[in-house]
């Protein structure tokens, strides 16, 4: 009988409960134990794991590496999927390998390139991957100059942090004065230029933003699985247009994604996002980690998390072609249990944790509603 595989996900997104589900339902019928850690005791990933710990707060990147090595050794982790402090962790890959833990993460060079969006855009331009026009700004005057230049070209300006993930800090500039119109309905991404300029001039320190034109839909996120030999095993695009989601194998999206994944050491799972600048697809962002929506590829008959774990264990799954492309769908929310108290350890991985008291639930995005074509 093949041995049980121990996988650890550190401080990750709630959506990765589905990542965990796919590992357990792997087509190899291999037993998988999942360890999870988080700073939030109510994270659904803790409740979904076989064993779980609360992470200490305030650790430096170097301190976190020591913590991670200890976790891997004490828990017998075979494959570690790091999100928090990924750069510091991959720099110590040899230390993890020495205790028998494989890192499901890219090379240190890849994390260095893609931690900073300006550095990433410069690198992409050098290999012929189209990027939108952009400016790096740190002051109010630089922001105004960048916005004026974009507006002169007929574009709507937006900005986002040079380092960041998940759309945090993204805003669209508007010249419309603040009014009751902006207080109706749900809050949106639009922010008045004069308010931003005033905030910047009152700030105690400079910002680090990229200003660029607002790009048009569709947004296409290409999920890639790349081996340590720099060959892509899987590339599937997930399309987004409003609420509608779908899939694509169109080379206008997949070809530049392969160039990036293979050329920059994006080993294992990565997510490369594109949008439209006029009639041309351009790079939006590169995530050196599994996307929160990766599980949606199950609608194409693909179990990407398990294929990645196989690669990390040295069991090459070969090139993976989706047997079909799933129907268009929508993403809705559903409840997931959270633990009633501090994370509990399961003595046996096959025993399902059943709290004696009712537990609270947190809504997690789930692929549930399919739209008719």
Describe this entry's structure for a reader.
It is a single chain. This protein has 373 residues and is of the alpha/beta class. Helix content is 27%, strand content 28%. It is built from 11 helices and 17 strands. It has a 5-stranded parallel beta sheet with strand order 3-2-1-4-5. It has a 5-stranded mixed beta sheet with strand order 6-10-7-8-9. Helix 2 links the parallel strand 2 and strand 3. The longest helix is centred in the N-terminal third of the chain and has 15 residues. About 4% of the residues have low confidence.
CA-to-CA gap between the ends?
45 Å
Structural class: alpha/beta
Strand order of the largest sheet: 3-2-1-4-5
Beta-strand proportion? 25-35%
Q: What topology does this entry show?
A:
Elements (H helix, E strand, L loop, with lengths): L4 E5 L7 H8 L7 E7 L5 H5 L2 E4 L6 H15 L3 E3 L4 H5 L2 H6 L3 E2 L4 H7 L2 H10 L8 E3 L2 H13 L4 E5 L9 E4 L15 E3 H10 L6 E5 L2 E11 L5 E10 L2 E5 L2 H13 L4 E10 L2 E8 L16 H9 L16 E9 L23 E10 L3
Parallel strand pairs: 1-2, 1-4, 2-3, 4-5, 8-9
Antiparallel strand pairs: 6-10, 7-8, 7-10, 11-12, 11-14, 12-13, 14-15, 16-17
Helix pairs in contact: 1-11, 8-9
Keyphrases for this structure?
five-stranded parallel beta sheet, alpha/beta, 11 helices, about 375 residues
Summarize the structure.
The chain has 373 residues and is an alpha/beta fold. It has eleven helices and 17 strands.
């Amino acid at each position: 009988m093949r041995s049980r595989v121990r996988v650890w996900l550190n401080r990750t997104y709630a959506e990765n409960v589905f990542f965990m589900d796919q590992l357990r339902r792997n087509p190899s019928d291999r037993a998988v134990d999942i360890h999870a850690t988080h700073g939030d005791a109510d994270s659904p990933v803790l409740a979904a794991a076989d064993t779980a710990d609360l992470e200490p707060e305030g650790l430096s990147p170097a301190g976190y590496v020591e913590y991670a090595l200890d976790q891997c050794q004490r828990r017998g982790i075979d494959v570690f999927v790091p999100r928090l402090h990924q750069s510091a962790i991959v720099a110590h890959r040899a230390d993890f390998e020495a205790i028998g833990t494989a890192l499901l993460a890219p090379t240190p060079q890849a994390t260095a390139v893609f931690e900073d969006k300006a550095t990433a855009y410069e690198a992409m331009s050098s290999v012929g991957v189209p990027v939108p026009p952009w400016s790096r700004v740190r002051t109010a005057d630089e922001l105004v100059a960048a916005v004026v230049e974009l507006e002169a070209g007929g574009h709507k300006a937006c900005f986002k942090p040079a380092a960041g993930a998940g759309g945090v800090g993204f805003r669209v500039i508007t010249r419309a004065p603040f009014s009751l119109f902006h207080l109706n309905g749900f809050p949106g991404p639009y922010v008045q230029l004069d308010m931003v300029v005033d905030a910047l001039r009152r700030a105690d320190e400079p910002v680090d933003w990229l200003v660029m034109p607002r790009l048009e839909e569709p947004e296409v996120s290409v999920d890639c699985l790349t081996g340590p030999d720099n060959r892509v095993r899987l590339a599937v695009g997930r399309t987004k247009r409003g609420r509608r989601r779908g899939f694509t194998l169109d080379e206008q999206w997949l070809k530049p994604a392969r160039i990036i994944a293979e050329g920059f050491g994006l080993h294992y799972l990565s997510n490369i996002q594109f949008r439209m600048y006029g009639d041309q697809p351009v790079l939006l962002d590169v995530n050196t980690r599994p996307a929160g929506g990766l599980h949606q590829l199950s609608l194409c008959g693909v179990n990407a998390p398990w294929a990645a774990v196989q690669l990390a264990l040295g069991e090459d799954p070969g090139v993976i072609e989706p047997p079909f492309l799933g129907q268009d769908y929508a993403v809705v929310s559903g409840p997931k249990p959270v633990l009633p108290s501090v994370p509990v350890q399961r003595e046996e991985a096959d025993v399902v944790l059943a709290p004696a008291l009712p537990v609270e639930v947190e809504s997690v995005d789930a692929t549930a509603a399919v739209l008719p074509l």
